[in-house]
Design a protein that fits this description.
Keywords: Membrane, Repeat, TPR repeat, Transmembrane, Transmembrane helix. The protein has helices at residues 9-16, 33-36, 52-66, 76-87, 90-117, 121-134, 136-149, 153-166, 171-183, 187-200, 205-217, 221-234, 238-250, 254-267, 272-284, 288-301, 306-319, 322-335, 340-353, and strands at residues 3-5, 42-44. It is mainly α. The protein is elongated.
Length: 357
C-alpha cells in the first residue's frame, strides 16, 4: 500500500487522469471545485520518508482535516477508527488516507448520480469517471448504469463485467447486468444473472421484480405472478404493484387489478400514478364516473400530465361533454404534440361536434 501527497486537487487530477484516455475530457475538474474538495492531499501511492516523521504526520493530519466536508469524523465509530489506526503507525496512517479517499469516491458517486438525475450528462460522467479511478469496485456499476440509460450498451456491459470480476457476489451488479441483457433480448443470460443474484440474496425484492418482468417478456405469466407476489411480500411498493396490475389485466383479471390499486390508494390516497392507473382502467371498463373522479384527483396532483389529460378528455367525450373533452385533448397535445392516440380521440370529438378539421 502506498500514499502520495499533493499540494492541491489539480495535481491529484493530473496524476490520476491519463491524458490519452477517452475519459480525460469528461473528467476535467472545474477550478471552483477546489474549495468543495477541500484541497485533498491524499492519493493511493507511497509514503515518502525523506521528509521525516513530523512532515508525514503533519500531512496526514492535513489530509483528514481538509477532507472534513466529506468525512464524518465526529461519529463515534469514525473516532474509534482514527484512534485505532493512529496506534498502528505508518500502516494505520495509510488506512486513514484510504478512508478519506473512499469517502471522496462515495461523494463523487453521489454527485454523479445527482447530476445524472438532473440530466447534466457531462457533469455526471465527469464525477463518476473520477470515482472509478479512486474506488472502481463501487463506481463501475454506477457508470455502467449511466451508459445503459444513454444506450451505450457495449460500454455498460464492459463496466458490469469489470465490476463483477472484482466482486462476483455483487447483487446490485448482477441485477444491473441482468437488466441490460433483458434490454438486449439476451433472456437466457438475464435469467442466469437474476437466478445467481437470488442465490446470494433470496429475499431481494428488486431482483424478484426484475425476474418477474423477464418472465412476462417470455410469456411465462404464472412464473411472473409468483415472483411479483413474493417481491411485494418482501417490499410493498407501487412500481412492483403496477407491474402486477398490468399482469392481472393481461390475464383478464380486472377486479384483482382494481383491488390492488384500491388497496394502495387506501394507504397513499394522493398517489397520482395509482389514480391514473385506476382511472384509466375504469375508463376502459366503461365505469366513466369513477374514471372521472380518479383522473380529476390525478390531475390535481400533476396538472400537466399529457396522459391524464388524454384519458379525461376521452371520458368527457364518452359522457357527451364535448367542449370539455376538446379542451383537455388540446392541452394534452400542447404538452406532447403529435400523439396519434390523442389526435384520433380529438378527431372523434370534432366528428361528434359536426366540425371536422
Amino acid at each position: 500500500m502506498s500514499v502520495y501527497y499533493f499540494s492541491n486537487i489539480d495535481t491529484l487530477q493530473n496524476t490520476i487522469i491519463d491524458p490519452h484516455s477517452h475519459y480525460s475530457e469528461a473528467a476535467e475538474i472545474d477550478r471552483d471545485e477546489v474549495i468543495h474538495f477541500n484541497r485533498l492531499y491524499a492519493k493511493v501511492g507511497k509514503i515518502t520518508k525523506k521528509h521525516g516523521v513530523v512532515w508525514r504526520v503533519g500531512q496526514i493530519i492535513i489530509s483528514i482535516l481538509t477532507a472534513f466536508a466529506i468525512c464524518p469524523l465526529f461519529s463515534a465509530s469514525c473516532r474509534q477508527f482514527i484512534k485505532n489506526s493512529w496506534k498502528k503507525g505508518t500502516s494505520g496512517q495509510e488506512e486513514i488516507c484510504l478512508y478519506v479517499l473512499k469517502t471522496l469516491a462515495q461523494d463523487l458517486i453521489l454527485k454523479g448520480c445527482s447530476a445524472f438525475l438532473d440530466k447534466q450528462w457531462e457533469e455526471a460522467f465527469r464525477q463518476i469517471n473520477l470515482a472509478v479511478i479512486l474506488e472502481p469496485g463501487k463506481a463501475l456499476t454506477t457508470r455502467g448504469f449511466f451508459y445503459t440509460v444513454k444506450n451505450r450498451f457495449d460500454e455498460a456491459l464492459n463496466d458490469y463485467n469489470k465490476a463483477l470480476e472484482r466482486n462476483h457476489d455483487s447483487v446490485t451488479t448482477l441485477l444491473c447486468r441482468g437488466e441490460l441483457y433483458k434490454e438486449l433480448d439476451r433472456y437466457d443470460d438475464a435469467l442466469e444473472d437474476f437466478t445467481e443474484a437470488l442465490k446470494i440474496e433470496p429475499t431481494s425484492a428488486s431482483v424478484l421484480r426484475s425476474r418477474g418482468d423477464l418472465f412476462c417478456a417470455q410469456g411465462l405469466l404464472e412464473e411472473a405472478m409468483r415472483d411479483y407476489d413474493e417481491s411485494l411480500y418482501m417490499d410493498y411498493n407501487l412500481v412492483t404493484l403496477l407491474n402486477r396490475v398490468d399482469l392481472y389485466r393481461k390475464l383478464g383479471r380486472n377486479e384483482e387489478a382494481l383491488e390492488d390499486l384500491s388497496g394502495f390508494l387506501a394507504i397513499e390516497p394522493g398517489s397520482a400514478s395509482a389514480l391514473r392507473y385506476r382511472g384509466n382502467l375504469y375508463r376502459q371498463l366503461g365505469r366513466l364516473e369513477e374514471a372521472l373522479e380518479d383522473l380529476n384527483g390525478s390531475l390535481a396532483v400533476k396538472p400537466r400530465s399529457a396522459s391524464d389529460l388524454h384519458y379525461r378528455g376521452d371520458v368527457y367525450r364518452q359522457l357527451g361533454r364535448l367542449e370539455e373533452a376538446l379542451e383537455d385533448l388540446n392541452s394534452s397535445l400542447a404538452i406532447k404534440p403529435g400523439s396519434a392516440a390523442v389526435l384520433g380521440c380529438r378527431e372523434n370529438v370534432y366528428r361528434q361536434l359536426g366540425r371536422l378539421e
